[in-house]
Design a protein that fits this description.
about 525 residues; alpha+beta; BirA Bifunctional Protein, domain 2; Rossmann fold; eight-stranded mixed β-sheet; five-stranded mixed β-sheet; 19 helices; RNA-binding; aminoacyl-trna synthetase; HisRS-like_core; ligase; protein biosynthesis
RNA sequence: GCCGCCAUAGCUCAGUUGGUUAGAGCGCUAGAUUGUGGAUCUAGAGGUCCCUGGUUCGAGCCCAGGUGGUGGUACCA
């Protein structure tokens, strides 16, 4: 024995988790359904390694001071930086560029696996987690984007979430145009545009007034921390907010907005556009209505107009295929992937609320998203390669499903063959072998404890049934089978010890040659 | 990264103004029960009171730093 002081502490690195039988089974059930859906849509499998050269991953170039900021990186023995992948899109771009000649384009592929992020873990947030992506590379048309949205909807339907999610769709070009219109165009304003996008991304959490503060001077949060704002003028803020609020119903009716020129507004006026109590808000209730109002508000700018047209096409294609607004919904407040998306962006949001152990509501929110990234493959090749795709956060979605459906029943364990007489363990092993030959999961008890402990063991293994053969049975060429599930039910009613020991509920003694079929009969009661 | 809160048995938690061998419930192991999961009763095992240093005659308790967790915030491909 190692001296106590010298023991190594058995501990998992922060932000990583072991996953047991129950969780793995749930993951498998989920990923089977996702894979099935993707394949129905004609996507083929691809696997790439966990490691890539750091420069291939894109954003995080090797930085001498902080090579591990955000990603896990290490130097190969030839001094090249390698990193653990932080998503599945960058490796796909690399694969496509590297094998461009061989692939049939448009290339429809999917991939599944763990990705790694070196950042602060939180509840439900790990440094290793699972993603399941699908992408179409080499199709520039918005019909590809529309397909991605519809397939995402199909996938969530297949997982039993129909009516409990919505795929929100937006187009980055509209916002780009809006920002051009308020004087944030051009390379020199890239930083401020990013600040605006970040502010917009917080609409859910902070509400319109929080976003207004972040678009203006800045905002002080509850912990006293100050976040510097984008420094927009009140007019510009109104313009941006009016864009975001198109979908929320806050801007109805349409005429009220269009009757007031932007120059007439003063700070705070956006909120005064709210619908008066009970007045109609017909146009936000449909995707077409959102397109219409976007056209009225923002079509002056050519970039915005292009984005609106694309958005309209996606909505029309989805609609024509039977995906109504309850599944695929236009929503100008979705930004996502601040840096690299170039056109349509989408986000799968769960719309239900569950409560945690302490009864507090949890909003799961986004469980996946994606969009068009026409620039990503182009980093590796002279020619531009259009691409669109999305990613499902499997770990997060699984947590949501668990919260929704409750803990999955632990899968049934094997039949346990008890060993009452260690000298005859060979007979026990032969019985287990027969069961396996009959297609029944079975194991021989290999510990050193007595019968009572063996029963307890079988119970914990969630064994459906135990095989008992002591000297009594052996002499008669018999085995006793105990149905543990029925037995537990019978036991619940018993309070007297004597009754407990004598009734021996839910067990039968049968000739040994009938072992397999009798066990099958017990198992059949489960199904 | 920044701000706050927390850390005692496998789990959930008590622990007095700083005072001798640190407790409970649940769980675990075993026995009562000659061959049966549950219930009941009995016994047992299980602790670096997160770590390091400081104050004190004396620290689970007070102080400082660290680590871990947690809540908010920032970042998020």
């Amino acid at each position: 024995m190692t001296r106590r002081a010298d023991l190594t502490s058995a501990r998992l690195p922060r932000g990583f988790a072991d996953r047991g039988q129950t969780e793995l089974a749930a993951t498998r059930a989920m990923t089977d359904k996702i894979r099935e859906t993707y394949e129905l849509w004609g996507f083929e499998a691809l696997e790439t390694p966990f490691f890539e050269y750091t420069d291939a991953l894109g954003k995080f170039l090797p930085d001498q001071d902080r090579p591990n900021a955000g990603v896990f990186s290490l130097k190969d023995d030839d001094d090249q930086w390698m990193s653990l992948r932080y998503d599945l899109t960058a490796p796909l771009a690399r694969h496509v560029a590297e094998n461009f000649q061989k692939l049939a384009k448009p290339y429809r592929s999917y991939r599944f696996g763990p990705v790694f992020r070196n950042e602060k873990p939180g509840p439900g947030r790990f440094r290793q987690f699972l993603q399941f992506d699908a992408d179409i590379v080499g199709a520039a048309s918005v019909s590809a984007d529309a397909e991605m949205c519809m397939m995402m909807a199909d996938t969530l339907d297949a997982l039993g979430l129909r009516g409990k999610y919505v795929i929100k769709v937006n187009n980055r070009k509209i916002l780009d145009g809006v920002m051009e219109a308020i004087g944030l165009g051009g390379e020199e304003n890239a930083g401020r545009r990013l600040t605006v996008l970040r502010a917009i991304d917080k609409l859910d959490r902070l509400g319109a007034e929080g976003v207004r503060a972040l678009l203006g001077q800045g905002r002080k949060d509850d912990s006293g921390d100050f976040t510097k704002g984008a420094g927009l003028t009140p007019d510009s803020i109104d313009t941006v907010l009016s864009f975001l609020l198109v979908q929320s119903g806050a801007l109805t009716p349409l005429q009220d907005v269009t009757n007031m020129a932007p120059a007439q507004r003063s700070e705070g006026d956006v909120m005064t556009f709210k619908t008066p109590e009970g007045s109609p808000s017909y146009f936000v209730e449909s995707n077409q209505g959102i397109v219409d109002s976007l056209r009225v508000l923002f079509a002056d700018n050519p970039t915005s107009r292009e984005g609106i047209d694309e958005l309209a096409q996606i909505a029309a294609l989805a609609e024509a295929s039977g995906y109504k607004r309850d599944r695929v919904r236009l929503d100008p407040s979705v930004v996502r992937g601040l840096e690299y998306y170039t056109g349509p962006v989408f986000e799968a949001e769960l719309t239900f609320t569950v409560h945690d152990d302490e009864g507090r509501p949890i909003q799961f929110g986004s469980v996946g998203g994606g969009g068009r990234y026409d620039g990503l493959v182009g980093r590796f090749m002279a020619e531009d390669v259009p691409a669109t795709g999305f990613s499902i956060g499997v770990s997060r979605l699984q947590a949501a499903l668990r919260a929704l459906k409750g803990e999955e029943e632990k899968a049934t364990g094997p039949v346990v063959v008890l060993v009452l007489d260690r000298d005859h363990i060979g007979a026990s092993m032969a019985q287990a072998a027969k069961l396996r030959a009959g297609g029944i999961a079975a194991e021989v008890y290999l510990g050193s404890s007595g019968m009572k402990a063996q029963m307890k063991y079988a119970d914990r293994r969630k064994s459906p049934c135990v095989v008992i053969q002591g000297s009594d049975e052996r002499e008669k060429g018999e085995v006793t089978l105990k149905d543990l599930v029925e037995g537990a039910k019978a036991a619940a009613a018993i309070t007297e010890r004597a009754e407990w020991t004598e009734s021996r509920p839910a067990q039968v003694t049968v000739p040994e040659h009938r072992l397999v079929e009798e066990v099958k009969a017990i198992l059949a009661r489960r199904d």
